[in-house]
Specification:
Layout (H helix, E strand, L loop, with lengths): L9 H11 L11 H8 L2 E2 L3 H9 L8 H10 L4 E5 L5 E5 L3 H26 L5 H18 L1 E2 L1 H7 L6 E4 L7 E4 H11 L3 E6 L8 E5 L8 H16 L4 H8 L3 H10 L3 E5 L2 E5 L16 E4 L21 H4 L9 E4 L2 E8 L5 E5 L5 H18 L11 H7 L3
Antiparallel strand pairs: 1-3, 2-3, 4-8, 5-6, 7-8, 9-10, 11-12, 12-13, 13-14
Helix pairs in contact: 5-8, 5-9, 9-11
Protein name: Winged helix DNA-binding domain-containing protein
Organism: Streptomyces longwoodensis
């Protein structure tokens, strides 16, 4: 451009996505840790998403479940914890301190204050009492290694105490101290999600003590998190950065300055890349590729401004009312349809755009690979979308 800023078109952005998100054949990962490190964060609100997102990017997807279980629950190289936008993610364990200091502290302070306010309004015990219960529960968790909320309540009965939330309001309800407190401890980085009670698709889980990590300065941690994410998802606009991190715009701008981010231009306007990432990526760097990505996949949810990979007219079919994306079919850097699993185990898909025979054959192959490694497992997304419901045949 005349002002010296480089223009990065949609085709180049799609090539970057293919390579850095490990979706093209030659960029596939060797293990779950490689995938998590490449993507920075895997959405973990729906447990199945983590495994499906990893499996779509491995050279050997048949090993997905065993290797991901080992990374999460035996080796401890991955951890499932609260992160950006008060959402549960799976991170590389060495990123725990960065996530906690960059995004968790502010949310944690707000969550604890809300809990204490709710308890006070209900006439429940005060902060001193709650601190005693917290310390006792953490000590019990240390003894048990991992435990469900019910198992912890047997060790510390005060976790069963109940109080009325929002008395007199239309949304009045009865809350349990344990449920609210464990949520607070999660965002404070004191506990993390442990092994599920059932299979890898189960939403019922145990709690575990969070891995020890150093306390970092918030601004330093924000700079590091943004640098890592921008290296994977750049160029990204300020709106993308603010949305993904959940930070204030002043924090985003401070972090951009701290890492020496370079400004480029995309179709949506000014955008940013890391200091060492200004060189153009040829469109031909990534061969054509197809992928079936799960609901809440970090690629589909990576940017707030998505027109360069997702046609606006497809959104009503692919997203729920809260903005959660469902399962998506990708061809060569664009979302072109959706997929679902039927009760029989069959993986079915539908294209919403014409893509040609080569693409259809590649999608069919990706669907067959997914069906093979799922085997007898049945997966229903936690957040249902219109097209996924229709394809699955399950209301």
């Amino acid at each position: 451009m005349a002002d010296g800023r480089r223009y990065v078109g949609a085709a180049e952005r799609r090539a970057r996505l293919a390579l850095r998100h490990r979706l093209t054949a030659r960029a596939r990962a060797g293990g779950p840790e490689d995938v998590a490190d490449s993507l920075v964060a895997l959405h973990g609100s729906d447990p199945a998403t983590v495994y499906l997102a990893i499996g779509a990017r491995l050279t050997d997807p048949a090993s997905t479940v065993a290797r991901t279980d080992r990374a999460l629950y035996e080796d401890g190289s991955l951890v499932r914890m609260h992160g950006m936008r008060h959402t549960v993610f799976v991170f590389p364990t060495d990123l725990t301190a960065v996530v906690h200091a960059s995004t968790g502290l502010t949310v944690a302070a707000r969550e604890r204050a809300m809990l204490l306010k709710s308890m006070a309004q209900a006439g429940a015990p005060d902060a001193v009492w709650l601190k005693e219960v917290e310390e006792s529960a953490l000590a019990a968790l240390g003894r048990l290694g991992q435990a469900t909320a019910a198992e912890l309540a047997r060790e510390e009965p005060r976790l069963r105490e109940q109080f009325v939330y929002a008395a007199g309001k239309s949304y009045e309800g009865v809350h349990t101290v344990g449920t609210r407190l464990l949520k607070v401890l999660g965002v404070e980085g004191k506990v993390v999600r442990g092994r599920p009670l059932g299979s890898w698709t189960s939403s019922q889980f145990r709690w575990a003590l969070a891995p020890a990590h150093p306390e970092l300065d918030a601004s330093v941690a924000q700079a590091e998190l943004l640098r890592r994410w921008l290296r994977v998802c750049g160029p990204a606009t300020e709106a993308d950065l603010k949305w993904w991190t959940g930070w204030r715009v002043t924090e985003v701008r401070r972090a951009l300055a701290a890492i020496g981010a370079r400004e480029v231009v995309v179709d949506e306007g000014p955008a940013y890349v890391t200091e060492d990432d200004e060189e153009a990526v040829p469109e031909a760097a990534a061969e054509p590729w197809a992928a079936l990505l799960p609901a809440l996949d970090p690629t589909a949810m990576g940017w707030q401004q998505r027109d360069w990979y997702l046609a606006p007219e497809l959104r009503d079919a692919l997203f729920d009312r809260s903005g959660n994306v469902g399962p998506t079919v990708w061809w060569d850097g664009r979302v072109v349809g959706s997929w679902a699993q039927r009760p029989s185990g069959e993986v079915v898909w539908r294209l919403l755009e014409p893509v040609g025979r080569e693409a259809e054959a590649a999608v069919e192959e990706a669907a067959a690979t997914l069906r093979a490694w799922l085997d007898d497992t049945r997966v229903t997304p936690r957040f249902r979308t219109p097209l996924e419901r229709e394809l699955s045949g399950r209301p």
